[in-house]
């Protein structure tokens, strides 16, 4: 595996922007592996992801900021530099439904997800055994109406202790408080079991069944303060018919949820997602 | 082409039902070509579609009712008999967007739709030329806020004159009055340019674009009194990305709308749709 | 869970067939839960699946054959009766790629597959740990060019010992001998990692990548004597682009393989598959 | 509509490449609208598409070559410059099946295809009327086994006379000679009615039906000397079941063919397709 650096840029669109970035990388001898950009004319916005080989690159990571800052300031860039050696640290939140958890753990073990998973938090003890199988610390934090603030404090402590970068709600059946969401902006990914914005809220399969839809879906999105309204990362659907009962929808939906959530997690940990105006750009 | 009869049945589920129907058809020497049934345990409902060759069948169509009524009464059936020789008569309503109209007319001419199309009604003269090309009477009925009731009266007169069985709203940009809907129960098919129930109402592509969805859809449904709430006949979706601008959504959506509407029309004219609890059963 | 019986019928299409079956079931007081039939006019073939509640049914399972045989003979039926209480016994064959195995075991444990899995056979010891996690006997039978006949003898002994009804090749990287295939007609399901008949044989992802296809697929099928030519049970595809490297195809393909294989296994164990002319009818 | 220029580049991947191109465009005051690039590490290849507004651009189109040549030579580029004002001229070849023709003509008229269509060539007179409706010259060139060379000479004359840039085979039922193909390298697009490489050659729907596939597909590709082996531009599929007879496959397939061919034509005329190693890169 090559050691690489990935630069993510978000700024107003202006002439000379690409020339400035390309010239900077060339001067420091970067061997570019992938580059993607997106322009939004309506918003006058420029978004870029560029990944290069660190071998032969003329700057040490710690020198990068100093050297790049003049360009960043000139073009009013928001930017981040990610190094492939620094794997993001991910916590999975889960309740009783374990299919997304099992799926993520298997993908992680088989090398599909370039992250560390040092923590699983659940409000039920049911998934302890699978966490043990994969050797991942498993913490039960019970949540009730009464103890919600306390429970979240306990969760914050665990997240801090394990230096968590990204929280994945793998069918976690609790709504996070506004404080929680504010503490982890664009760092909480949820899977909702409908093609949003259809069936926002509870029991989407039940409502899809009652409405008689011919497709069911799943949506992964970043969690924001308004329920199920955060930026959509990925969606997919599967066809259903009158032959499908509610249980069939739920069963077919599980396969969707696993795939849609795992794509979102993978893109996030590979730094492929940029955000603007409540939308995502996926550089895949 | 064989001459066939199609029997559609909707009744409470009871033992002996299939035996009674099968025995009736056998006694009258029916050569069954297709049979489909659906049971809904929760609603205790039985739905059936059976199609047979009229050649050799022992009853004249006009005798069927008399002979079948005892069985129908015994099992409390709602039933309809459709003869392949009696093609349904279809009116297409259209405004300025002509892609669904053009698509339906081409499919009709190429033999894909087993119906007659004796009438096109539009609130704009724009599509006259394509109607002429296919030799179909084209009537302009202008609709304004002020003249809506009058305009619908004129439409009713045209529909009556042409003995219309089914109305297809092919991107017709007017909302029908409750009176209109009541006059044609389960006989008006609309195409809505979203995967309902997402983006009910106006400008669904604009709202899909703003929401940043990763899929756009189209839905064909029967029109009922509540806007976009009627029984869904068919839905389909296509994938979009951040590279797609609003115009791209609209363009990709056109291909969906055409296919989704034409499937609904075909299934209706082939008597493949049964309705219950605001849902459709499609015997395809 | 209700105790049910499922009758599968395959015979020449003749008038009176449905009446005879329906009447038989009615006379014995069967409460029909699901019935599906398919007619192939070109082949003059009639296929049926009917499932009924055993509660209140007037025949004991052991009486069924005697009572049904006259009808079966009259219409030259091939038929099978399956009881929900008699779960099929399934053996999984696997090599080193474990994603399909892990997926099947999880689905089995979560109640999605109505079968027993008393045996896993592998030519490598790698997947022992996951077999142990789910508590399923795991047998290593090494296969080389030289010992193939011997190895299959050992496999036959294990399959006999565990009374196996169905063998699932979950990315098992060995070709079965003609003797093996003959011993288990329509009882071996394989997953092939392409949309057959494209890319029959070895290394389909490599060849798909070289060919520059825009879709990759997976196919589950019954194993017959000609490689990858058996009746197709299920297929699905996923879109790829020039941005996908070979490893991306392999990774995306894994998700397809799991879903496509698991659907085939489920339909088989639920007695939803009928076969004719090297094709499958899926009563789903 | 903005007047734009699109530059397509294909060259060995080298450091400094993007910097050189971006600097060149910046120095000449280009307002970049879209830029996409693709690197193939295995082939050490760099492909780029960049489109900019001609308003304010510092070079006249006729000066571009002179100014850009030094950079092009330094990096061994193959390159093309396309101006939005110079619409490609397209000829459609058709036989009796008219669905793709009708679809392309409608899309062209509704502004979806940025090209001129000055010529339709058919070996049958059947589609004359639709050509007339859209006001497009229609030439019948009969093709038999005996007159093939002559017929192609007549076609060449027509193609020359109408200064044709791109030939679209819209279900044209004749195989082009190697001379024809050689005369229009990467300038003939065909639609094949299967998901290639499955069912290369004649009667793919018949063979798909016999094989019992669960998906049917369509593939648009550039025509090369080996039948159905040219670079794939686009593919799509639709699900079929045992309920679908051969005619259903053909009918469902028509909808695929139209969409898959029209996407390929649109991408070609918008200069979104780059070719290497018998593969396409689609900058969509």
UniProtKB/TrEMBL annotation, chains A, B, C, D:
<dbReference type="GO" id="GO:0008864">
    <property type="term" value="F:formyltetrahydrofolate deformylase activity"/>
</dbReference>
<protein>
    <recommendedName>
        <fullName>Formyltetrahydrofolate deformylase</fullName>
        <ecNumber>3.5.1.10</ecNumber>
    </recommendedName>
</protein>
<comment type="similarity">
    <text>Belongs to the PurU family.</text>
</comment>
<dbReference type="InterPro" id="IPR041729">
    <property type="entry name" value="Formyl-FH4-Hydrolase_C"/>
</dbReference>
<keyword id="KW-0658">Purine biosynthesis</keyword>
<feature type="active site">
    <location>
        <position position="228"/>
    </location>
</feature>
<comment type="pathway">
    <text>Purine metabolism; IMP biosynthesis via de novo pathway; formate from 10-formyl-5,6,7,8-tetrahydrofolate: step 1/1.</text>
</comment>
<dbReference type="InterPro" id="IPR036477">
    <property type="entry name" value="Formyl_transf_N_sf"/>
</dbReference>
<dbReference type="InterPro" id="IPR002912">
    <property type="entry name" value="ACT_dom"/>
</dbReference>
<dbReference type="InterPro" id="IPR044074">
    <property type="entry name" value="PurU_ACT"/>
</dbReference>
<feature type="domain" description="ACT">
    <location>
        <begin position="6"/>
        <end position="86"/>
    </location>
</feature>
<dbReference type="GO" id="GO:0006730">
    <property type="term" value="P:one-carbon metabolic process"/>
</dbReference>
<dbReference type="GO" id="GO:0006189">
    <property type="term" value="P:'de novo' IMP biosynthetic process"/>
</dbReference>
<keyword id="KW-0378">Hydrolase</keyword>
<dbReference type="Pfam" id="PF01842">
    <property type="entry name" value="ACT"/>
</dbReference>
<dbReference type="InterPro" id="IPR004810">
    <property type="entry name" value="PurU"/>
</dbReference>
<dbReference type="InterPro" id="IPR045865">
    <property type="entry name" value="ACT-like_dom_sf"/>
</dbReference>
<keyword id="KW-0554">One-carbon metabolism</keyword>
<comment type="function">
    <text>Catalyzes the hydrolysis of 10-formyltetrahydrofolate (formyl-FH4) to formate and tetrahydrofolate (FH4).</text>
</comment>
<dbReference type="Pfam" id="PF00551">
    <property type="entry name" value="Formyl_trans_N"/>
</dbReference>
<dbReference type="InterPro" id="IPR002376">
    <property type="entry name" value="Formyl_transf_N"/>
</dbReference>
């Amino acid at each position: 595996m090559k050691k690489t650096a990935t630069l993510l840029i978000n700024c107003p669109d202006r002439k000379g922007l690409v020339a400035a970035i390309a010239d900077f990388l060339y001067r420091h001898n970067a061997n570019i592996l992938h580059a993607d950009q997106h322009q939004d004319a309506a918003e006058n916005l420029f978004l870029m992801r560029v990944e290069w080989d660190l071998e032969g690159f003329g700057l040490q990571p710690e020198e990068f900021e100093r050297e790049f800052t003049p360009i960043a300031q000139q073009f009013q860039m928001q930017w981040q530099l990610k190094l492939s050696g620094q794997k993001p640290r991910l916590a999975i939140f889960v309740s009783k439904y374990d299919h997304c958890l099992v799926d993520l753990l298997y993908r992680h073990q088989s090398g599909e997800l370039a992250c560390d998973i040092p923590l699983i938090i659940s409000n039920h003890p049911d998934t302890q055994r699978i966490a043990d199988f994969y050797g991942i610390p498993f913490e039960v934090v019970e949540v009730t109406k009464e103890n919600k603030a306390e429970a979240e404090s306990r969760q914050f402590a665990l997240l801090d202790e394990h230096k968590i970068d990204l929280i994945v709600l793998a069918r976690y059946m609790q709504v996070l408080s506004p404080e929680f969401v504010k503490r982890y902006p664009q760092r909480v990914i949820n899977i909702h079991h409908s093609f949003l914005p259809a069936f926002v809220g509870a029991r989407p399969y039940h409502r899809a069944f009652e409405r008689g839809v011919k497709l069911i879906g799943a949506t992964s999105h970043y969690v924001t303060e308004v329920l199920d309204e955060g930026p959509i990362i990925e969606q997919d659907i599967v066809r259903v018919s009158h032959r499908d009962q509610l249980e069939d929808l739920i069963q077919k939906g599980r396969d969707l949820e696993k795939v849609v959530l795992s794509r979102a997690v993978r893109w996030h940990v590979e730094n492929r997602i940029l955000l603007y105006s409540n939308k995502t750009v996926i550089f895949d």
